[in-house]
Amino acid sequence: MPKGKMKRMGRRSSGIKSASKGQQDKLNKRARKLAEKPSLLIPECIGECRSCDLEKLEAKLIKISKFRGNSNALQKLAKSGGQLERAYAVMLILDEEDSAPFLGVAKMPSGEVSYANRGKVKKEILIGVQHYDDTKFGLLAYSDFALKKNLHLYYTPEGIKCSGKVADYPKELIAAVLKDVDYTFNRSGNTYRCQHCASGDVGGKLTLRIRSADMTFEICRTCLKDKENLFRAFSNRALVQDPEADFDIDLDYSLTCVSDSCSVGDLFIKTKQILKAYTAGQISDKALMDAYSSEVMKKIHDMDTKMLVIGGRCFEDDTDKFIEALRPSKIEKKALQYVLGKVKEPVIIDSATASAVLSMYWEELGEGAINAVIDDMPLAKKIYSGAKGSGITPSHILKDADARKKAEDALGQLPELKELGKLSKYADNIVRTYRAYGTEETMKIIEKGQGGNTKTKSISCSFYDAMGLLKGKEWLFTKEELDYGRYLSEFSKILLDAEPDDYKEALQNLMTASGSGETI
């Protein structure tokens, strides 16, 4: 872990304002309590120190408290000696004044706070002493004393506790912090995990460990919050020289190698700068992981080799396994095989569909992808050009291209027939639609022809019967049309399945059997 000294709280002030009656009363009550019991400013000792700096401090405060009511002496004490002792003398002055008509207002990192400015005392010390019972500001009282003495102070729900010169993060403070953060954990022993880490379903995680408490917290990428900084949530309730010394922060991108070989495991990711921003409270838990993931991806991109990565799984250059993981359709698979065969740089996606991967390279390789499906470059170029800028996904374009090619192939095999009569043209249209687009589209053509004469309706009935779709549609026809249609269905079946060389004859046979009198 990179280490750095704790930054002192900001000292910006927005000026002076008149104190409200409520603010005066609260300040007076705190001043009265401290005047009567200076030990309220002394943290509870939970360490095992040979000599206690807090005992010496308490003795000094008790000595100062004996000057209560001696305004001149207190004024001098508020200007000399240790900063915390001076701030205590100020509280005794405020106790004598009974009111503080004007208060300073400071904007601190933890919020705006009012305070009475007396003596020669650092602003943050005054604020901490005057708000000694506030979890946001109470530790400020010791920001000079504790850091000089290298003490470890913690603001717990029961008050401030001191573990001396050795870190000992209180368990009850951990529980209090966890109530304040927007995370839900499952606990197992000394480890707290989010639901995904608990179930093992992890695609990268942030792990934070408090050494002195032997407590570990694991949060996956999915659960990390953009408004939370877990390190600061814990460290802000402690006052120590080196806030990071008691914490281990680990970032895991969790790439699982699906391939037999692994190049990613040898990557060295520099985290100093992003961890520095994180521990300073400049970025959130989620932003930390995003920044780390970005560094991992940059490293992979910089590798002089083809890498295929989906979320937390690395396939190295195994295109087949990568495609299989995308679960593509047969059409998408052909296009992906072409595209990924052309791509030489790393392909990295969080989670995606086959269409999403194709979209990444569609502008450059779309024509070739379509041709890989239909094996007709002139038509592929035409389809690619026509779909450009339409917003249609590559998967839909490929599906339409495949259907169009099959239709053209199917229709191209049949002989071109000109000057057909009305009934023969209707039958020919039914057959061509059936061969190019299948049963569903064919039924639409037949339904449009339902309003014709008896011969037309008998032809419709014959095709329904030839395709095995007449059952349930008998009510559409008269008894004569049904009988005639069933008779013609054998001719219609032969026409539907006719080879190109036999097609014209098969159509003529149907027309003859129907009694239309039309000649092909």
Task: Please summarize what this structure is.
The protein is built from 21 helices and 16 strands. It has 520 residues and is of the alpha/beta class.
Give the distance, in angstroms, between the N- and C-terminal Cα atoms.
Answer: 88 Å
Q: How much is the average pLDDT? A: 88
Q: What is the radius of gyration computed over CA atoms, rounded to a whole number of angstroms? A: 41 Å
Strand order of the largest sheet: 7-8-10-9-12
What proportion strand? 5-15%
Bin the helical content: 40-55%
What class do helices, strands and sheet pairing give? Answer: alpha/beta
H/I helix tally: 21
- The geometry reads as elongated
Largest sheet: 5 strands, mixed
Q: Are there runs of 5+ residues with pLDDT below 50, and where?
A: 1-14
Total count of strands? 16
What's the quaternary structure here?
A: single chain
